Amino acid sequence: MYLIVGVDPGTTTGVAVLNFRGEPVDLFSSKDLSMDKIIHRLVKSGRSSVIATDVNPAPGFVSKLAAQLGARVYTPPESLSVSEKIDLTRNHKTSDAHQRDSLAAALFTFNRFKNRLQKIDSMNLGDDVKHLVLQGHSTSEAKKMLQEEEPEAVIEPPLREEREPTEEEKQIRRLEKQNLSLRKQLEERDREIRDLLKKISATKRAYRVELRREDEIKRRDFSLKSMESSLQHMRNRLEDLEELSRLWKKLSKGEVKPIGVFPEVYNGYTVVLRRLKKKDLDLLDKVKVAFTPEKANHSILASRNIFVTGIEYLREVSGCYFISADDISKLTKAAVSLEKIVEDYRSHRIT
To answer: Cβ(29)–Cβ(96) under 8 Å?
Structure first.
């Protein structure tokens, strides 16, 4: 009996065996299953025509097993997906994923050759022809090969005197043998080239699939980073809003005071974050206390009797500046003291 064998190699190896009607003959899986054990079990069932796998390209174990059994390796155009394997084996009982995958590989191969096998049945050509077709030959080639193997009727040649062949005849025989050997080598090379072209085509498809997968991953990573950035921005805004909410509550209780950002002035207070220009001087009339990190502003503000200090007293949330009531009180006292000193100095100069 000829066999279609599906193999799923690995730490646990699964093996499925079908006959030429697509019926399971054997199905087993085991850990650390050696090649010798598999070969021994398969030989007991029959002669392997095809060793099938569910992935493309075929694993090295499958190729070596096929070579040992003199069978052809068959792979799907692209590796079978889990859903495809489940669909192929839905009418069969399997004990684990390895049995399922090996059975799916065997059934997929049988389905690919099913019509040709049925046509051979309709021609009453038998399993030997099917075996050769599965090995990669056409039906006509298989028939011819089997006919050549049939023993011809032995016809006794007429007795004739034996003679030594001439050198020319010997040379012709040697050339005929060389020609036959070269033809076989060329056929083998052609077969290897076809197999390599199939593998190259499969590798290109797998590479294109992998490139698309990498592009998709990059797009997802970029989208994820963008979402993470937006989320962090929203978190920061939320923290600012919460902080503003707390400050407004303190503001309503009189615990903090708002500070205007120049040219805005709140209750005589402003923060000057840039260097003052001549056009700004007319806007300083309402300023009593100015906060500024620019040292160049100090002399300009002081010359207009404005109390000047740094911004270390201030708190800033989302561009809004605040100062505690305690710090305002301290600065107010300092400002009053400064005014008194200036007035005393002016009075002393006048007298």
So the answer is: yes
Residue partners of 18: CB distance under 8 A and separation at least 6: 3, 4, 5, 6, 24, 25, 106, 107, 110
Strand (E) or helix (H) holding 278: none
The CATH T-level fold of domain 2-146 is Nucleotidyltransferase; domain 5 (3.30.420)
Instruction: State how far the alpha carbon of 223 is from the alpha carbons of 7, 82, 211, 244, in Å.
Output: 41, 28, 18, 31
* Tens-place pLDDT, residues 32-81: 888 999 999 999 989 999 999 999 999 999 999 999 998 999 999 999 99
Beta carbons of 266 and 320 less than 8 angstroms apart: no
In order, the DSSP letters of 132-179 are: HHHTT--HHHHHHHHHHHSPPPP-PPPP----PPPHHHHHHHHHHHHH
pLDDT digits (tens, 9 = 90+) for 224-270: 787 777 767 767 666 666 766 776 677 667 777 888 888 888 888 89
Residue ranges covered by each domain of the chain: 2-146, 179-252, 256-350
CA 116 from chain centre, in angstroms, equals: 38
4: closest CA among 22, 27, 30? Answer: 22
Cα gap 311→327, rounded to integer Å: 12
Tokens of 160: 């004739």
Rounded to whole angstroms, the Cα distance separating 2 from 47 reads 5
**296 CB-near residues (< 8 Å, 6+ apart):** 275, 276
Cα separation of 89 and 226, whole Å?
Answer: 43
